[in-house]
Amino acid sequence: MKLLKTLMASTTSKLSAITKTKQPDNHPYLFKKIAHRGAAGYCPENTFAAFDQAIAMGADYLELDIQLTKDKQMVVIHDPTIDRTTNGKGRVKDYTFAELQKFDAGSWFSQEFKNERVPLFKDVLARYLHRVGLLIEFKKPSSNEGIEKKLAEELIKLPLDQFDLQHIIVQSFDLESLMRMHAHLPQIPIGLLINYPLHKQEIIRFSNQVQYLNPKWSMVTPKLLKAIHDEGMHSFIWTVNTPREFNKVKGYPIDGIVTNDLDLFQQEKG
After folding, report:
1. Of 27, 78, 229, 234, which one is the catalytic site residue?
2. pLDDT score of 153 more than 60
């Protein structure tokens, strides 16, 4: 606890200075390529296969979802149940991690991935931390009581010199959950996911709470992004999956694009 308090005191001002800086008018927006649940268009989502493929395709960040098991282990899975992405049924929180490992998390996508399993978050962290950025999303934090503290405890184990303030980002639709995360570990940037129209006053209010404001791609306009940047925040937009969607937003002043289809970026490069 003493170490955590020391880190909180020493890094809060640094976080504000680095991550909440007004963008200059001539800022070159070279947006980050963010792999949604890994390379979810090519491999079973939120698996090692998907994350490895995303890195091979040049992703700058892996977007992933975390939830708690019955024995309070953080696992990487999107849904509150295992029905859609494994050959099992039931709620994630009703299984221990060991029990989850009995289920196949790849065959639903293709027999090629038959032996994939639901990953443990700390294993994902160990495998990818030095290779790619991590955009970590709390899924249903109200059903995963204490997940913010668990994540902070896992991240605080990292040596201090490994903290890159833009290398690990935590996001959620739940602002209260993000505030709890910030209280536990303020040096990690947090981002609020948005899927409804924003007013200027809301953007100003959010700028005092988060470092990223991440809207759904279909609501994004240059005016909205300018308002977000004017208040010192960054913006990752989600989830752009077709050439039509990509062509609409690629010229906007975006900090990052979340996608299932990383080939969209290769088309742009070509």
Report:
1. 78
2. yes
Residue with tokens 């300018």, as numbered in its chain: 226
For 90-102, the pLDDT digits (tens) are 999 999 999 999 9
Is there a contact between 77 and 121 (Cβ–Cβ < 8 Å)? no
Give the separation between CA 125 and CA 74, rounded to whole angstroms. Answer: 11
In this structure, how many other beta carbons lie within 10 angstroms of the beta carbon of residue 244? 8
Count of C-beta atoms within a 10 Å radius of residue 6 = 11
Q: What angle do CA 38, 213, 191 make, to 5 degrees?
A: 55
* Contact of 85 with 45, CB cutoff 8 Å: yes
Structural domains present in the chain: 2-15+30-269 (3.20.20.190)
78 flagged as catalytic: yes
State how beta strands 61-68 and 74-76 pair: antiparallel
* 184 catalytic per annotation: no
Q: Which of the residue ranges 50-54, 126-130, 215-219, 264-268 would you say has the lowest mean pLDDT? A: 264-268
User: Which entry of 27, 36, 182, 184 is annotated as an active-site residue?
Assistant: 36
User: Locate tokens 């200027």: which residue?
Assistant: 200
